[in-house]
Structures are given as C-alpha cells and as structure tokens.
Amino acid sequence: MPPNRKKVFFLSVFFFWTFSVHAAINHYGGSLVEATSNDPKTFNDIMADDANSASVTGLLFEGLTTADPFTLKVIPQLAQSWEVSTDGLQWTFHLRQDVQWFDGVPFTADDVVFTFNDLIYNPDIPSSSKDIFTISGKPFKVEKIDAYTVRFTLPVKFAPFLRSMSQNILPKHCLMDAVRLKKFPFTWGIDTPTHQIIGTGPFMLSDYHPGERLVFRRNPHYWKKSAAGESLPYLDKIIALIIPDNQTQLLKFIDGEIDATSVAGSDYPLLKPLETKKNFKIYEEGADYDTNFLCLNQNAGVNPQARKSFVDPSKLSWFTNLAFRQAIAHAIDKQKIIEIINNGFGLSQNGPMSPSSGFFYTPHVKVYDFNLKEAQGILQTAGFKYTQGVLYDPFGHPVEFNFLTANSSTGSSRDEMAAIIRSDLQRLGMKVNLVPVEFNVLVNKLMASYDWDMVMIGLTGGVEPHFGQNVWQSSGGLHLWNPRQKVPATDWEKRLDEIFDQGAQELDENKRKVLYDEFQQIVANELPVIYTILGMDMYAVRNKFGNLTPTVNGGPFHNIEEIYVKK
C-alpha cells in the first residue's frame, strides 16, 4: 500500500472511531420525569404487596431470569445459563460474575440462597412469594454449589419454574443481621436512608421526599452492556413525582412537566389532537392486565382483639350466598362504565385472565349480562323480599353494607366505577354506603384488620396463571374473600387448590391449559370476585427518547436501561 493511501485509511478509521465514541457519549445524560399516584409503603421487596412499592423495587432489584417483553420467553438476567436434570427436578444456575451490589460487594450464590432460605421460606416473615414457591405444601431445596453456582431441587416437577426465577434477589450482607434479630419485616421501610437500600438494578434510589417525589440515579457499575458494548443505563436520573390526582398528572404532562403518562380512555379525545403541537405520541398496546373487580367479605373468623366476628353474621349470610353474588354480577352495567368512564376504550371482563395473557386465556366462561330484572328474580328465589322498594333478607334484615374503594388518588377511576355500580345496586333495593379511602388504608383493611364489607379493587395479572396462586389457593394471603384458610371452606375452593397443584406439576402445556380453563370457569361460576372491565393499555410519551419500544407486557419503559434522551 503506497504511503499516501495508508495515511488516508488511518485517518478514515480515526474519524470513524471518534464519531462512534462521540455518538456513544451523546447517549448518556438527561432524565426521565414520571408521575406516581401514591407513596410506596416499603422499599423491602419481600414485603412489598402493592404496585407503588413494586414499581420502586423493580428498578433496584433483579432476578435470575426475566421475560422477553416481545416474545414472553424466559431469558437470562443475573444467571447467565442453567441446566436441568432429565427428571426435571434439579436445576443448576450459573451466575454472572460481573455483578456488584450498589455498595461494591460482589453478587454471589450466597445472596440467592439467602433470599430463598432465609427470607421467602422464613416462617417469621409474611411473604406472599412463599405461596408461589411452595408446591404440594413443600418448599424447594436451595443450595450453594460454589460462589457462582446455585442448585434448586424441586419436590415435584414445576412447570413455571424458570419464569418464577424472576423473583428479585436481595443482599445477604446487608440484611442477615435483621433476619437474625427478627426485624426483617420492618427493615428497609420508607424511613430508611436511601443509601442503605442496596440492589443490583440499573438505578439506585438517591432521594425520597414523602408526598413529593422519588429520585433514582444511574448505577455507574451496572453489569449490562448495550449491543455496541456501551455501559448502561444511559439516563442520569429518573424522577417520580408523587401526584395523587390523575387529572393533575395529565395537566402536568400537557404542560411538559412530566415526560410520560398513562392515558385513560376518557382523556384520549383531549390528548390525541395535541400530539404534534406538544411533541409526544400515544401508544395503544392492547387489553390491560390490570383487573377491576368487586369482592365481598366472606371471612367467617373472629377478631381476637375485639372478640367479635370480622363480618356481621347477617352480612356474612348474604355474602356467602351465591345467589346474592350472582344478583350483584347482573347489576353491573359494564358497557355503561366503558362508555362513560373510558370513552369507549375497554373490554367487558368475565373471568380472571386478560386476553393479552395469550395461550392460557379462555373466553369460554359464564357471562352475567346487565339485567336488573333478572337480578331481582334471583334474589327473590333465594328468599329475599321487597317492601316498598327496600330489599330484606329472609330473616327480615334490610340489606345495607359499606362499599370501599380507593379514592381518585390512585388514578384508576375505580371510585367513578364504584359510583355507577352503587347506583344500580340501590335500584335493587340495597342500601350501599360508598366509602372511598386512601389506597394504603384500603390495603390495611384487606390484609390486616379485615374490616370491610364489599370492596372494589384490582390486581395485576400476567401470562402465567400459577403466579396468581396466592390469590386462588385457599391458604393464600391474597385469597381476599376468605384468606389463609386452614382447610378449603368450599368444594370449589378445594378444586381450585387441586388445579393449581396439578397445573404447577404438569409439563405438557396443552394439559395445563385444560386445567387453567377450568379454573377460569370455576371463578366465573362461583364469583368469589365479580369482574367489571379491562381498560386498554395506552401511554403518552414525549418524542425526546430513543430506544423506545413499548409493549403491552412491559409498558413504555420495559428496557429502561437502554432508553436515552435524544440530543
């Protein structure tokens, strides 16, 4: 090669290299400003049982596996590979060796063993994850092979095992003392200095001002790299403003104070014409996973402190009566809710899974059309009577109960839905006292004091039915209508227990589907919860971000570590 050509080649390579470095550097910096409706209840992932806490811990902690947001296939995360024995009972995970906790301590097999053996399976720690990782009443055996190898030995085959390994892992070196002192359930509460919350995720919690905001800053030692080998994440900060009112959130988005917001159907006509002028885009992803349902308190237990029944005996006799629940199901005008509250965006929900769940979803469940006349007939056949338009039970008690839901600060419009439902229930002669309360108060009533009659609330679903076991298993902590039963209270609850045990052990997907179809049909027939509507997954996001690829399974920022601000 002649000298002059050699020089030109060198310069072209040099300029390409400097341009590439410059482009990579330009990906770094900037922030994402979001809004959240409520303060988290805890920063302790094992104790988190609400969406606000989980949204925080989801940035801070990671599991051995995760799901591809497009294909839903299980892919590696903190584990780089694994193998399974021929009998399907023994799984060996090889951990990444380039992962550090926020404080610089290496992530190892000790942390995995600690998370399962000392936290999830600890009888002194009330974790709903315990239900998911207990099969036929037996836990997994979790053991360290070497510093970066962990082995799980299962009591029986467990079909969703790999997907369940998305369970967040917590640091042994930070939390073991709290476990020994039996203080773990109160550790990493919202009053904990943020620098003490130690995870492996792409962002670290740097500031928390209750009622105002949470601030996350970039983890400079995050293990994940881009396809080009660049260190991730790109963003410097994520700021979550705590804005209780969803209309205020919407206005702040329009004014440019926040970068993204979920879009309710009722807000779509306002936002859509502003896309170009305000430089954002609305992403419509499909049916939501988040359910909206009514639940009647069927807890027959006695409050040991007050020495009286959790539920008034007369009300308990109504709530445990299938005819009463069927009448309420027929009194829900789902289409009216969709039209008035969601501006036509939404689907009638008749069973416990969303159409977005895919393979395991079945539409073949019992449907309760809105029909007040039929509802009245069902009640009268069951012995209820009307006197001057007021409904009385067979023993002469007027039907009156409290109807709790979260107030509008959740941004879910459930209080508006509840008002429509209350109006129609009163047309059935029931006196329904609608009581909107702050979300954390509502959760406490459901999970601790059991002081409620009827509630409207929701749970987040997904693609794997087994992960709802803590709701549907009779002994589950989220078995809302009658939690933590020592033995199933009804034959159909016993059958649900059997289905979830069998479904977890059945490796043939088609046979699993038969079981989970039956589960959805039982729930629709027996109405332990009474479903209303599914919203549509819609987001408005500023056009300032690169690598944005929203999905119904992961939302707009499922790949938050890859998102960057365009320069």
Question: Can you characterise this structure?
Answer:
With 567 residues, the chain is α+β, with helices and mostly antiparallel strands. It has a 5-stranded mixed beta sheet with strand order 22-21-23-15-24. A 4-stranded mixed beta sheet has the order 1-12-11-10, with helices on one face. Strands 4-5-9-8 form a 4-stranded antiparallel beta sheet, with helices on one face. Strand 19 (385-387) and strand 20 form a beta hairpin. Helix 3 (109-120) runs parallel beside helix 6 (172-180) and helix 11 (322-330) packs antiparallel against helix 13.
Shape: globular
Instruction: Count the DSSP helices.
Output: 18
Helix- and strand-based class? Answer: alpha+beta
Terminal Cα span: 40 Å
Global mean pLDDT: 91
Strand ordering within the main sheet: 22-21-23-15-24
Radius of gyration: 26 Å
Roughly how much helix do the residues carry, as a percent range? 25-40%
User: Mind describing the biggest β-sheet?
Assistant: 5 strands, mixed
Strand content: 15-25%
Number of beta-strand segments: 28
| Sequence stretches where pLDDT stays below 50 over 5 or more residues | 1-24
Reconstruct the topology from this structure:
Layout: H1 3-26, E1 31-36, H2 51-60, E2 65-67, E3 74-76, E4 79-84, E5 90-95, H3 109-120, H4 129-132, E6 134-135, E7 138-139, E8 141-146, E9 149-153, H5 161-164, H6 172-180, E10 203-209, E11 213-218, E12 237-242, H7 246-254, E13 260-262, H8 268-271, H9 275-278, E14 280-287, E15 293-296, E16 302-303, E17 308-309, H10 313-319, H11 322-330, H12 334-342, E18 347-348, H13 372-381, E19 385-387, E20 390-392, E21 400-406, H14 414-427, E22 431-437, H15 439-449, E23 454-457, H16 469-472, H17 491-505, H18 509-526, E24 529-531, E25 533-534, E26 536-542, E27 545-546, E28 564-565
Parallel strand pairs: 1-12, 21-22, 21-23
Antiparallel strand pairs: 2-3, 4-5, 5-9, 6-7, 8-9, 10-11, 11-12, 13-26, 14-26, 15-23, 15-24, 16-17, 18-25, 19-20, 27-28
Helix pairs in contact: 3-6, 11-13, 17-18
